[in-house]
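Page 37, continued from 36.
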């Protein structure tokens, strides 16, 4: 009971601990230990994501995103299927796919060549970052994602994922904060990989023609109303098909389902 009362106060304590390094280190360690303890025995990616989200809030990061990507050219991944879990603002997700920013995202480019966590500001200020790539950061900021840190997660056989944490204001992440977020991201990634690889290989989801049409237009940034007009069906019918796709893809958002459909090759942009 005493441990629960103590950890419940840690989030508030962290705000005032910056002037007391020893106390801050203890608070960070308590929160990380708590996160690891809570994930013990959990074998559902969504539940693990919820726990990681709660942990990230202690560092003032309300938004996180986990995305497994295709391996680099010439490498073949042993990963079972793409995993996409995020809680970024819906409007930013829509804008991101509508503009095709996944093709120029500087976070993805940087993560492929980096082993450790990095601040978004480092990438923005890098001389090799193009103006188009900086625009991705600039637009993300207009939707509330003003600063962040990303953690590349490279695995055997070319498997590759990125975990990103974002804040709503400008500012630099402290080195200790980055260290704990990186540890938490790695713990999450290893847990997901462990129970994904321990099960039977999952077959590619089988979508109906109408489901493919609805999720394709979703990936292109269209609303249910717009998709209904394009396909000549009601918005409620569109929502019905998209919910079916979300269920088959085992995702909690239409954007994540659309991303998975594209990564699986079920639909082509």
């Amino acid at each position: 009971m005493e441990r629960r009362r103590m950890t419940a106060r840690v989030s508030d304590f962290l705000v005032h601990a910056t002037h007391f390094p020893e106390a801050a280190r203890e608070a960070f360690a308590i929160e990380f230990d708590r996160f690891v303890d809570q994930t013990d025995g959990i074998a559902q990616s969504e539940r693990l994501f919820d726990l990681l989200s709660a942990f990230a809030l202690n560092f003032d990061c309300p938004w996180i995103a986990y995305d497994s990507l295709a391996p680099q050219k010439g490498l073949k991944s042993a990963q079972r299927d793409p995993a996409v879990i995020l809680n970024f603002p819906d409007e930013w997700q829509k804008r991101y796919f509508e503009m095709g920013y996944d093709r120029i995202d500087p976070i993805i480019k940087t993560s492929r060549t980096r082993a450790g966590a990095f601040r978004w500001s480092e990438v923005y200020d890098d001389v090799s970052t193009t103006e188009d790539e900086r625009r991705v950061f600039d637009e993300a900021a207009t939707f509330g994602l003003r600063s962040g840190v990303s953690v590349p997660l490279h695995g055997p056989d070319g498997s590759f994922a990125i975990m990103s944490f974002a804040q709503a204001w400008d500012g630099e992440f402290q080195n200790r904060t980055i260290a704990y977020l990186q540890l938490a991201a790695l713990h999450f990634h290893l847990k997901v990989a462990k129970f994904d690889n321990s099960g039977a290989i999952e077959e590619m989801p089988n979508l109906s023609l109408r489901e493919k049409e609805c999720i394709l237009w979703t990936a292109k940034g269209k609303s249910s109303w717009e998709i209904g007009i394009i396909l000549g069906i009601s918005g409620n019918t569109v929502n019905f098909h998209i919910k079916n796709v979300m269920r088959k893809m085992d995702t909690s958002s239409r954007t994540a389902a659309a991303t998975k459909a594209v990564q699986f090759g079920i639909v082509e942009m």
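The longest strand covers residues 147-154. Flag for discussion at group meeting. Residues 44-198 form a domain with the Beta-Lactamase fold (CATH 3.30.450.80).
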